[in-house]
Design a protein that fits this description.
The complex is a heterodimer of chains A (253) and B (229).
Chain A (H helix, E strand, L loop, with lengths): L2 H22 L2 E7 L3 H15 L2 E7 L1 H9 L6 E3 L4 H8 L9 E6 L1 E5 L11 H4 L5 E4 L5 H12 L10 E4 L2 H9 L5 E5 H4 E2 L2 E2 L3 E4 L8 E7 L7 H11 L1 H9 L5
Parallel strand pairs in A: 1-2, 1-3, 6-7, 6-8
Antiparallel strand pairs in A: 3-12, 4-12, 5-8, 5-11, 9-10
Helix pairs in contact in A: 2-9, 2-10
Chain B lengths: L7 H34 L5 H13 L2 H12 L4 H8 L9 H27 L2 H8 L4 H12 L1 H16 L3 H7 L9 H10 L3 H24 L9
Helix pairs in contact in B: 1-5, 1-8, 2-5, 3-9, 5-8, 5-9, 6-7, 8-11, 10-11
Classes of the chains: A alpha/beta (253), B mainly alpha (229).
Chain lengths: 253, 229
């Protein structure tokens, strides 16, 4: 047997040994609401390591992801920022009936990039002469709707009208505040938290009673119905390991 | 289709868009004319770099331009520091900020047609004017401007239309404020995101028709040919 043949045999054997792994590994595309970007990256990395499946993540506002799914986007799973859109998809037959569950309950935070700017009771909203208060678009983003509910509850909705600037989604809202263009804004706690503390700047964690709960639902989409990786990922999201990550980013369960 | 079409929000977005495009076009003609004239006449080594900078928005994604504008015009950026020192505040989330962004974004669509028009005039009319003892300014207004008229028409239409069609930059620096920064393209995007497809269709269809008509006028216009021939 010559050298070349031996190499070929070795390669063949190596490939044969790998086949079972390759056979089981599936690839899925998952649509994820922007606020869940950071924890989902961590969870996906662990999931890929533990199972060998491959996950491609697309981030965006839930409304945009909905429009994409309705128009044939190849997503197997939607991790929405609310429960309405998953319910709607389920009703429209684009999601698998009975697969919907709440994977996280969002926490809203009033945040500024400046240290000491936001007090721990949110009094800054009435006490400071800020020019811009950033929120996510309340019409399309659940965190924006929660921000408006909070402002209404505090009796400030009219007062701040002229100061509101809207991000297209919660990620852009965070960017407006992080770049200092808006002195403060309502963002998702997951965007500014690190090991249980607000990483930078200052913030007030809005009490959950100030707005209707931000229930974030996951849904298996019909395109993922027969994909083992999609089922595996949904199970994984319910696991203790994923719950730990989700909680660490300031979400309830 | 039912007609929920032009509610107040849409009308104000249309008005805002037209205002933005008009102001931007006027500013660009004022700024772009000397730049184009210089680019057309100079033998300086800087011609290449300056020409390239002017053309950058043709190839840069609006997200890049929008991102840099947001950071530069923000309270910690160089432009933001300057505008604050001048007592103007910061530009993002303001109509003035959109005008500044649009001027950068639509610059090549005005400068390039003007530059082409100036270059097409050539040396002879200028030499003729000089022998008749016309000064440089006199020559520019009485010889160059009339001869370059088709270029100005093209530049104005393209600058205006391109600003009307702006989206990415506005989205990144505008903050979606009604009557201040919520232009038509952003309004359409909002409708799509909110699943208000009927309203989105009306505005999007109107935009399509408008763009087609503008280009039709441009391509069919006798001003585009003639004059030089």
């Amino acid at each position: 047997m010559n050298m070349l043949n031996r190499t070929r045999m070795t390669l063949f054997a190596a490939l044969a040994a790998l086949t079972p792994l390759i056979g089981h590994a599936d690839e899925i595309q998952v649509a994820v609401a922007s606020n869940f970007t950071a924890p989902m990256r961590v969870i996906t990395e662990q999931f890929e390591r533990d199972t060998g499946h491959k996950v491609l993540l697309s981030f965006g506002s839930t409304g945009k992801l909905y429009a994409q799914i309705r128009n044939g986007a190849p997503f197997a799973i939607l991790l929405a920022a609310d429960e309405q859109i998953p319910i709607r998809l389920e009703d429209e037959g684009l999601g698998v009936a009975g697969s919907r569950f709440t994977y996280a309950i969002g926490t809203l935070v009033l945040w500024s990039a400046n240290e000491g700017y936001v007090d721990d009771q949110g009094k800054v909203l009435t006490h400071q002469a800020y020019r811009h208060l950033a929120i996510a678009n309340p019409k399309t983003a659940p965190y924006g709707a929660a921000a408006m509910a909070t402002l209404t509850k505090l009796g400030l909705a009219d007062l701040v009208t002229g100061k509101l600037v809207q991000g297209e989604n919660i990620a852009q809202t965070h960017q407006f505040v992080a770049s200092g263009n808006a002195e403060l804004g309502f963002v998702a706690l997951s965007q500014v938290i690190e090991s249980g503390e607000i990483r930078q700047g200052s913030g007030w964690v809005v009490p959950a009673t100030y707005h209707p709960p931000i229930r974030q639902d996951a849904l298996l989409l019909t395109k993922g119905r027969d994909n083992p990786a999609a089922h595996a990922l949904l199970d994984y999201l319910r696991s203790a390991k994923a719950t730990e990550v989700i909680n660490a980013y300031g979400y309830g369960r | 289709m039912e007609i929920p079409a032009l509610d107040d929000a849409s009308l104000s977005a249309i008005w805002l868009t037209l205002k933005l495009a008009s102001i931007t076009t006027v500013l660009l003609l004022l700024l772009g004319t000397p730049i184009a004239w210089w680019l057309a006449r100079t033998r300086s080594r800087l011609k290449g770099p300056i020409g390239a900078v002017v053309a950058l928005p043709l190839v840069l994604p609006p997200s890049v331009l929008g991102f840099y504008l947001l950071v530069a015009m923000g309270p910690n950026g160089p432009v933001g520091q300057l505008t604050q020192t001048l007592g103007l505040g910061v530009l993002p989330f303001t109509f003035a900020g959109l005008v500044v962004g649009s001027v950068f974004y639509s610059m090549p669509f005005v400068v390039q047609p003007l530059q082409n028009a100036f270059e097409a005039i050539g040396e002879r009319p200028l030499e003729a004017a000089a022998t008749l003892r016309a000064g440089p300014l006199d020559t520019f207004f009485t010889v160059v401007l009339p001869l370059a008229r088709p270029g100005f028409v093209t530049a104005s239409i393209l600058g205006f239309a391109h600003t009307v069609g702006e989206f990415g930059v506005v989205l990144m620096i505008g903050g979606n404020i009604p009557e201040k920064t919520r232009v038509l393209s952003v309004q359409i995007y909002d409708h799509v995101e909110a699943l208000e497809y009927a309203q989105a269709h009306w505005l999007a269809g109107g935009m399509l028709l408008f763009s087609f008509l503008v280009l039709l006028v441009l391509y069919a216009s006798p001003l585009r040919q003639g004059w030089r021939g």
